[in-house]
Design a protein that fits this description.
The chain has 3 helices and 3 strands, in the order E-H-H-E-H-E. The chain has a 3-stranded antiparallel beta sheet with strand order 1-2-3, with helices on both faces. The termini are far apart. By secondary structure, the chain is of the alpha+beta class. It has one domain. 15% of the residues are buried. It is elongated and about 30 Å long.
Length: 86
């Protein structure tokens, strides 16, 4: 059985129009819609999507750097979590 490795996908405010197409390469339309909703909730923030079973360790490291000012927002069951930062 294979192990899901983490992938990082960053979407900046200037690329939100293209975001849905980019995200659809990774996950289904519902996830793309939720990410766009999150982007509207935090205008001007970049959205960082962390996909993979090892995402919790990745998130912990990123938060420790102090770069992230908004806590993790879990939208989905499974191994996806989303962070937004200013």
């Amino acid at each position: 059985m294979g192990v899901c490795q983490h992938r990082l996908l960053e979407i900046s405010p200037s690329h939100l129009k293209k975001a849905k197409k980019v995200i659809l390469k990774y996950r289904e339309e519902v996830m793309a819609t939720n990410i766009l909703i999150l982007a509207e909730k935090y205008p001007g923030s970049r959205i960082l999507v962390v996909v993979g079973y090892s995402h919790r360790k990745v998130v912990e490291k990123l938060v420790k750097t102090g770069e992230f000012s908004i806590k993790t927002e879990p939208f989905f069951l499974g191994c996806e979590e989303i962070l937004a930062y200013n």
